[in-house]
Amino acid sequence: MLNAHFVLLLGALSAAAQQATFSSQSTTTQDRTVFHHPIKRVAVIGAGPAGLQAAAKLVEHNFTVRLFDRAPGPGGNWFYTDETPVRESYPDTPIDEEAYIPEHLPATHYYEEGEEGITLEDRWKEHWQPRPVWDNLHTNSPAVITELPDVPYLPDSPWVLSNHVIQRHVRAYASLHNLNANDYPIVSSSPPVTAYSTRVEKLEKIESSQTWRVTVRKLERLPETNQIKASWWTEEFDSVVIATGPYVAPHVPDIAGLADWSKISDAGQYSVYHSQSYRRPERYQNKTVLIVGASVSASEIARDIAPYASSVFASVRRHENVPAFRLRSFQRFPSTTQFLPEIAHFESLPSEARDQGIKHGNIHLKNGSVLHGIDEVILATGYIHSNIFLPNFTADGQPTNLHWTGHWIPDPTLAYTNVRPWTIGRYQSYAFAKVWEGTAHLPSQKQMREDYDNGKYHFRGLFSSAPAEALFRQYVAWLNNESLENGGRFVEPWPMQNREVFVYYSEREWIKGYTTLANFTDFEQLPSREWPTGKADAWDAIVYDDHDW
Ligand SMILES: Cc1cc2nc3c(=O)[nH]c(=O)nc-3n(C[C@H](O)[C@H](O)[C@H](O)COP(=O)(O)OP(=O)(O)OC[C@H]3O[C@@H](n4cnc5c(N)ncnc54)[C@H](O)[C@@H]3O)c2cc1C
Ligand SMILES: NC(=O)c1ccc[n+]([C@@H]2O[C@H](COP(=O)([O-])OP(=O)(O)OC[C@H]3O[C@@H](n4cnc5c(N)ncnc54)[C@H](OP(=O)(O)O)[C@@H]3O)[C@@H](O)[C@H]2O)c1
Ligand SMILES: *[C@@H]1O[C@H](CO)[C@@H](O)[C@H](O)[C@H]1NC(C)=O
Ligand SMILES: *[C@@H]1O[C@H](CO)[C@@H](O)[C@H](O)[C@H]1NC(C)=O
Ligand SMILES: *[C@@H]1O[C@H](CO)[C@@H](O)[C@H](O)[C@H]1NC(C)=O
Ligand SMILES: *[C@@H]1O[C@H](CO)[C@@H](O)[C@H](O)[C@H]1NC(C)=O
Ligand SMILES: *[C@@H]1O[C@H](CO)[C@@H](O)[C@H](O)[C@H]1NC(C)=O
Ligand SMILES: *[C@@H]1O[C@H](CO)[C@@H](O)[C@H](O)[C@H]1NC(C)=O
C-alpha cells in the first residue's frame, strides 16, 4: 500500500492565488466586467464531459488551449478500466497535502520498481486514479441528459445506458474534436491541445504577469527498462477552466476498529474495500457480504452481487428526512437484502485469528446486536467533495464565490464547470469563450458580489440550485442577448422532447421531478424549491409497497 503522503499528492491553490484580487486583473465599468489583458491562452484541467466541452468550444473560438488530464485518455469518470485504484487509506487522509515538486523545473526522474517502497504499478495508479466505475454499471439518469453535442446515441438506445456505451460516446466526442489521446495537432506547427497522463500539481496566480502558472507532472511507463519516467514542467495561461469533477477521493467512515480490520487479510487478500474498487461480482460468489451505506453505489452493487453472494447485508443510517434520490436506492436493493442499523464498532480480532480473515470477527451494531461471519465488507460510503484548485469549496460539495456562469467572482479569469446534466455544458462552455473573447460581459464585480451575497445566482451545480429548466433558459436568454449586442451565433434552448423525457424519467424514477416545464425565464421567477425530500422514514421506505421499478 502507498504511504499516506503519496495517496493524495494533488496540487493546491497557492496562498498568492487565494488572495488574488480582482482589481489588478480586470476592472468594471458601471455595469460590466472588462479584462485588462487580452485572454489568449487557456488551460482546461480535466477531460471528462465538462472539460472536453469547454476545450472544444475554446478551440473553436481560436484560443490557444491546453487540456490536461491525469488519466491516460478522455472520459473522466467514464474512463472505465479493469484496473482498480490504489487502496484507500484508513481513515481518510487530509486532502490538502501538497504534491512533491522538484526545486528546479523542468525536471525528470526515472522511478525504479520498489523505489521509496512503492511498486511501479501503484505509482502509476496513484497518478491517474482508476475510476470508481464497475463493469455492469448503468446510468441512473436518462440518456438525454448524458448526451454530448453532435455525437448522438443510436436511435434505439435504451433509456439508461451501460457505462461502456457512455465511455465510447465521450471518446467519440473527444475524437470529433481532435481531443483524443492519439490525436495530432490539426496544424502540425501548433502545439498539441491535449496532455494526458499529465496531472496538474499546482495552480498559482503570478501577480507580476497576471498569468496563471500551472505546474504539471506527466508519467510515462517504460516497459523495456521497467521504469516510469516522470516529467515536471510549468506553463502559463491567461485563464483557467477547472473541470476536475465533483469527487476528489473516496470517503472511509470513521468507525471505531475499521482501520484495524482493513489490515486483516485472508490468504493474502484484504476483505474490506471502498466501492471505488468494485468491478465484478464473481469475487463475491458464496460470500456473506456487508455493504455500508444506502445510496446509489450501495443499492447498485447489491443488485450486481446478489445473484452470486450467499447473503447480502446493508448497514443503513437512520434519518428523519430521506432525499428522494435515496428513496430510489432503497427500492432498488434486491429483496433478499437484510437491512441493519448503523455500525457501532468493529471488535478487535484476537492475534491468532488475524490471518484467517474477518469472518472470525464481531461487528457491533448500534442497536446492541452483534454480527458475526461476514466475509467481505464493501464501503459504499461516498466521496470527499472538494476541489483542490478552488478555495472555500464546502464539505457538501458546493463551490463558493462563483457567479452562476461558473466564473470565480474574485478573479473571473478562473472558472469552474461541473456538468449535471451534461447538456448544460454546451451553454456554459460557450459562455466561457464569449466572456473571455469579449463578446459577452459579466456584470460588474460589485453586482456579481451583491447577487451572490443575496443568495441569487449561485452556481451550485444543477441539482441543488435550481430546476434545470431555469438554468437552461437563463443561459439562452443571456447568451443570445449578448450576441445580439456584441456579435456571435445564437443558441437554441434544449429541445422540448428531451425536457419531456427528463421530466418523465425524474418523476418516475427519482420519485420527485428535478426539472419542470413551467415557463420560468430566469432565476428570479423561481419559486423557492429546495432539494426535494421524500419526508419518509428510511425504515418505512425499505418496506415500501411499490417495489416494481
Ligand atoms: C459511480 C458513479 C456513477 C455515476 N453515474 C452517473 C449517471 O448515471 N449519470 C450522471 O449524469 N452522472 C453520473 N455520475 C456523475 C459523474 O460525475 C458525471 O456523469 C460526470 O462524469 C461529471 O463530469 P465532469 O467532467 O464534471 O467530471 P469527471 O467526469 O469526474 O472528470 C474530471 C476529470 O478531471 C481529471 N482531473 C482531476 N484532477 C486532476 C488534476 N489535478 N490534474 C489533471 N486532471 C485532473 C480527472 O482525471 C477526470 O478525468 C456518476 C458518478 C460516479 C462516481
Ligand atoms: N449510475 C449509477 O447507478 C451510479 C452508481 C453509483 C454511484 N452513482 C453516483 O455517484 C455519486 C456517489 O454515490 P455513492 O452512492 O457512491 O455515494 P453517496 O451518494 O455520497 O452515498 C454515501 C452513502 O454512504 C453512507 N455513509 C457515509 N458515512 C457513513 C457511515 N459512517 N456509516 C454508514 N453509512 C455511511 C451515507 O449515508 P448517510 O445518508 O447516512 O450520510 C450514504 O448512504 C452519486 O452522484 C451517484 O448518483 C451512480
Ligand atoms: C477563428 O479563426 C478563423 C480563422 O481565422 C476564423 O475564420 C473564425 O471565424 C474564428 N472563429 C471565431 C469564433 O472567432
Ligand atoms: C458455491 O456454492 C455452490 C452450492 O453450494 C457450489 O456448487 C459452488 O461450487 C460454490 N462456488 C464457489 C466458487 O465456491
Ligand atoms: C438490531 O437490528 C437487527 C436488524 O433489524 C435486528 O435483527 C436485531 O434484532 C436488532 N437487535 C436488537 C437488540 O434490537
Ligand atoms: C473563504 O472563506 C473565508 C471564511 O468564510 C473568508 O474569510 C475568505 O475570504 C474566503 N476566501 C475566498 C478566497 O473567498
Ligand atoms: C440585454 O442587453 C442589454 C444591453 O447590454 C441590457 O440592458 C439588458 O439588461 C440585457 N437583457 C438581458 C435579459 O440580459
Ligand atoms: C406562465 O406565465 C403566465 C403569464 O405570466 C402565467 O399566468 C402562468 O401562471 C405561468 N405558468 C406557470 C406554470 O408558472
From TrEMBL:
For molecular function, the Gene Ontology terms on record are: flavin adenine dinucleotide binding; NADP binding; oxidoreductase activity
- One Pfam family per UniProt: Pyr_redox_2
Query: In the record, which residues are listed under signal peptide?
Result: 1-19
The UniProt keywords, alphabetically, are:
FAD, Flavoprotein, Oxidoreductase, Signal
Transmembrane domains' residue ranges? none
Highest taxon above the source species: Eukaryota
Residue span, FAD/NAD(P)-binding domain: 41-312
Protein name (Swiss-Prot/TrEMBL) = FAD/NAD-P-binding domain-containing protein
Organism field: Mycena metata
